Amino acid sequence: MFTNPEDQNILAAILHKPELTDWLPALSLAMQQAEQTLLTKAKSKSTRETSFINNLRKLEALQKFLSEFKDLSLSLEAEFCQFWQERQELTSAEKTPDLVQLKTKDLNVQINLHPQWAGFLLHELEDLSHYFEAEVVQALYQAQTPYLENQAYQQIQALWLKIKRLVNTLIQDLIPWRKGPFNLLNQPIDAEWDCGKKWSRLQDLGLDKLLNGKNILDVGCGNGYYMWNMLEQDTPANFILGVEPFEGFTAQFLLAKTIYQTLGGTNLPYLLTLPLAKVPASNKFDVVFNMGVLYHRKDPVIFLEDLGKFLKDKGTLVLETIIVEGDETTCLIPGEKYCGMTNVYFLPSLATLEKWLAMAGYKHLEVKDISVTTSEEQRATPLSSPLSLQDFLDPNNPELTIEGYPRPQRVIILARKN
């Protein structure tokens, strides 16, 4: 057993993917070694690892509450059906819907109760107002009155309050939220990055054709925002695995996944908490995403080579990174900071980046988008760090950072080896 239950979930999922099963022995060994490292650091009171384990315990408690909530809710299915049969003017559903719903409406990852279940179960006007118009809310609230005598219904109300409080506590505990937006059980999470804007640019590339039935690896996936969006495509992927070394982002991902999976969601992404260097290479993936990571690497060409080791022969790397103006001899090496960030090492021109990709073995390159990062896309919010892009641009010349470098502009490029 692993401290992080997601590790066991990954192994179980791969076991049911015949094309990936020969990866299991090496991957399992790497995960066991990471488990020992986690426990050793936690014993030494390392803040990061100790905090992660504490958050896993809170997630375990949340899972327990959600499981009880689900079982009690489904035990009232007959009452649910009767409730809505008497209100057919509000719904056209012919069968009982799933309890939970994943939607990426307006590029906001929303994991909430299905509106019909919410309309029956949630006996609070504020909760109902998230799902229904004002004139409907009051009618539903009054219609629920007879069910308040039901013991299971009473237990559901108490559990719902516990679930909401614990979800809110975890959202606060897991600050800063870098990627979003999310909406978890109607609790909004406005992250520093409005990643929906980047996702829109990716969709314009014909992303459905890249994902359709494919195995996807998202390296440096953060809290999994993009992976949840991948699940909501008209032609979804076969298997989506993220790789993320920072436990805080893993915990954010697990908060969303715990809610969705425990309430009955079945089509799931997975997240492996390891640095890429510790993940055994396996050329089993049709598409590898790597967004906003390359400039944090001290060894960019080797890193690009490592990404390629996970691609099938005709697989595609989707790379998004910061570039600067210049020719193939241009590469900015910032000083102590770049746009307020301390861990930015190399910023190539587009021509230099293409040269790096060629050095790493990629032969077919296609530039899809170049966009200047704006303060509408990256900004400080109550759930992020207090400072963001706008604070690190020169107030007298917004085309420069406060350090005097060109402001960030990002490229999306597709690269294939064959």
UniProtKB/TrEMBL annotation:
The keyword tRNA processing is assigned to this record: yes
Name of the protein: tRNA 5-methoxyuridine(34)/uridine 5-oxyacetic acid(34) synthase CmoB
Native organism: Psittacicella hinzii
Keywords from the named record: Transferase, tRNA processing
GO-annotated molecular function: transferase activity, transferring alkyl or aryl (other than methyl) groups
Domain of life, per lineage: Bacteria
Record-level GO BP terms: tRNA wobble uridine modification
Pfam families: Methyltransf_9
Keyword Lyase: no
